[in-house]
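Before the break, one more example. Copy the sequence into your notebook; we will annotate it together after we see the structure.
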Amino acid sequence: MSAAIFFIAFLVVQRLSELVLAKRNTQRLLERGAYEVGAGHYPLMVAVHGAFVVAIAAFGYDQPVNHFFLAVYVLLQVFRIWILTSLGERWTTRIIIIDEPLIARGPYRFIKHPNYVLVVGEIFVAPMVLGLFWVAIVFSILNLCLLAIRIPAENAALAKIRP
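Here is what the structure looks like once it is written out:
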């Protein structure tokens, strides 16, 4: 198996695992009385992120791996683990609101939305691992458009939660 195929396989398994974790966490939160906001943009977000992975696979499977960007991607995964462990069962891909104090540990001590910082980095870096500059640019722009919708929706909902 080539390094590019291995990277793409990792990316696919990672994204699918995240969807499983997010679905489980969402269900548990809803069972505890949480509710979802901003669901209208969620299908678009899934479509963009799905197309992102497909584009990397379709155009990157036979490309050489750039070791600098691979190292940056690995560092981003350390950041991801920090985010996931900090949020625990509160991490999900949807905007799920529960009347509990916001998480204030881990990277959330320093940044309001560290997961979005991570995703912005990954959207650019993952394609660059395979030299796909145009994929990095196109999907970075699409992701920023999504975040322009999502972050205000999340901030408005979070503002209603007690500190």
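Residues 120 and 143 are 7 Å apart (CA to CA). The longest strand covers residues 35-37. Try to locate both features in your own notes.
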